[in-house]
Amino acid sequence: MISMIKKIIFGVTLVLFTGSLAIAADSIIIKGSTTVLPISQAALEAYTKINKGVQISLSGGGSGEGIKALIDKSTDIGNSSREIKKEEITLAESKGVKPVAHVVAHDALIPVVNPKNKVKGLSTDQLSQIYQGKITNWKEVGGDDLKIIVISRDSSSGTFESWDHFVMKKAKVTPRAQMLASNGAVFTAVSNNKYAIGYLGMGYVKKGVKALEVDGVVATPESALSKQYPFSRELYMYTNGEPTGETAKFIAFLKSPEGQKMVAKEGFVPLIAPAKTKSSKK
Questions:
Q1: What's the rounded Cα separation, in Å, for the pair 196 and 152?
Q2: Which domain holds residue 169?
Q3: What is d(CA 152, CA 200) in angstroms, rounded to the nearest whole number?
């Protein structure tokens, strides 16, 4: 997974070809969310092994870019870590595009700090105050006397918009925040700076950063699926109308038991209920 993070820090484009190099009818283009990117990559690698004539192009760039590409008819699948907006639907329909949502996984948006930070958890209000720049020192929330370095996603990111929905409630992020283009970039920034705080999709929370509890709740597959964890969300693939051909087969593969095992392996939450764990409430 760490090698995956290194690949997508600056928004990688991955193209897997099987068969001849000529453009084939059996091809799929996927663009959008960097949160959904590792799930898509794992699925396409498995899918192309058993479907030798299929060509799949996969790129990141953010949820907004994935939906824009769908509207522009330059992608078969628009990956998104948020629901499509009403104004995006209106624009799509004006261009003859009918966005159809396919939930492929569940996720938890998790605030993370450097492992050297002794803070274990924050409230939603404290997170909002930090990201607005009203709380500026870790000692104000039970940590050491250190300046807080705020790390955020950029505005084209569905993860940024999810953070706005759950935490900011339309309040402005401090202009001192570092706005980064991918989950991988946030991971790297926080893992390398003991002063930093950021937020990541569940599949990116690995050794090198420390997950924080939110309002006393730990993010687990069980608490994300039940919505007990307050920042739980769905991950989407959008198509223009109901998918057909290889696009339909690929999405069906990802939603199958085999595909959902890959979702879990990448650190996200499959569509079926995970095995029960110890209570996430402390």
A1: 10
A2: 108-226
A3: 9
Residue with token string 């003991």? 194
**Token pair listed for 207:** 């050794």
Helix (H, G, I), strand (E, B) or coil at 70: helix
For the CA atoms of 181, 183, 188, 194, the dihedral, rounded to the nearest 10 degrees, stands at 100
Rounded distance between C-alpha atoms, residue 255 and residue 239, angstroms: 15
CA nearest neighbour of 190 among 157, 161, 212: 212
pTM for the full model?
A: 0.85
The closest alpha carbon to 250, from 132, 124, 82, 75, belongs to: 75
Q: 224-233 as b/e, with b when 16 or more CB fall inside 10 Å?
A: bbeebbbbbb
Q: Please check whether residues 12 and 102 belong to one and the same domain.
A: yes
Question: Are 101 and 239 in the same domain?
Answer: yes
Of the pLDDT bands very low, low, confident and very high (cuts 50, 70, 90), residue 25 is low
Q: Is residue 251, in this structure, part of any structural domain at all?
A: yes
Residues 201 and 220 in one domain: yes
Same domain, 25 and 81: yes
Residue 281: inside a domain: no
CATH number for the domain harbouring residue 39: 3.40.190.10
In a domain, 270, yes or no: no
Residue-level pLDDT at 277: 45
Q: Return the ∠ at Cα 27 (arms to 25 and 28), rounded to 5°.
A: 140
pLDDT in tens, 217-262: 999 999 999 999 999 999 999 999 999 999 999 999 999 999 999 9
High-pLDDT (> 90) share of the chain, %: 85
